[in-house]
Amino acid sequence: MIQHSASSSPIFNEVRTESDAREYMLSHCWPSHDRFCPRCGEKKLYTLSGGRYRCAECKYTFQDFSGRWINNGNLSPLSWLKILDLFIREHTVHELATELELSYNAAYKAVTTIRFAIMAHAVDAAQMFGPETGLGVYLKNRKLTGDPKDSRRPPIPVFGIMERNGWVFIDIVSGIAAETVFHFNHSFHLAMHRAGNIVYTNRYRHYDALVFCGDDSLPYEYIRKYEAAVHLEEGSFWAFAGQRLKLFRGVTPQRFPLYLKELEFRFNNAGADQFEMLARYLCDIVPEF
């Protein structure tokens, strides 16, 4: 069980009102205080009523948070900051919804938005939103959409985990399918382990492990029969991630990359002010991949 720490961000402890929260988020959205069109970048704007602007170039009408991650979910700035605090402290969606008196769906969408924002700031974001994961289809007009209406089997990407000098990097291993990993296990005795539909291996080439989240088409019972023990070094990424991976049961192959990139972010920024970082991420304009 993961222990929830007390809020450690001095910024969150100082922001008490909706007005304070809005000013804080606006400082991340517009650090220079100069507004511009989030669609075309034009700086000549017409000021409208209700805090809206109209671009003189492309005629796009927008408000201060338009086109940014924070614009998903119809939540107030103060609600977003409370969600960020609970997310950083690793509360579940159920706990978050109860604490903030939100519906489960609203809380889940907010947490999903944070995970998308984290992945959008990864060095390999373009690949992560590409066809190998299919996650790019969840973004339309700089907003998150629901699950795409596509009856085809979603891709099951295989990820490689590399830990070096206290940092971890998780990337897509192109050219290797989930079925191929089972072949490596059968033919080359690559040890495999299972937590629900999440499968991970021992060291493979320059990777410390391979990991993927599969669907019901894969032969998980084979892993159960021949599963090998795992040695976790204290302070390693696997010691950090192992318990958390077990909590990811029920995660779909489509969403699994979001959870991996979340773990990468948490591990690499364990000593940083994650609250400040994630507030800035949420206030960035949603990129187009």
UniProtKB/TrEMBL annotation:
InterPro entries: Tnp_ISXO2-like, Transposase_Zn_ribbon. SMART domains: DDE_Tnp_IS1595. Residues 127-268 form the ISXO2-like transposase domain. It comes from the Bacteria. This is DDE transposase.
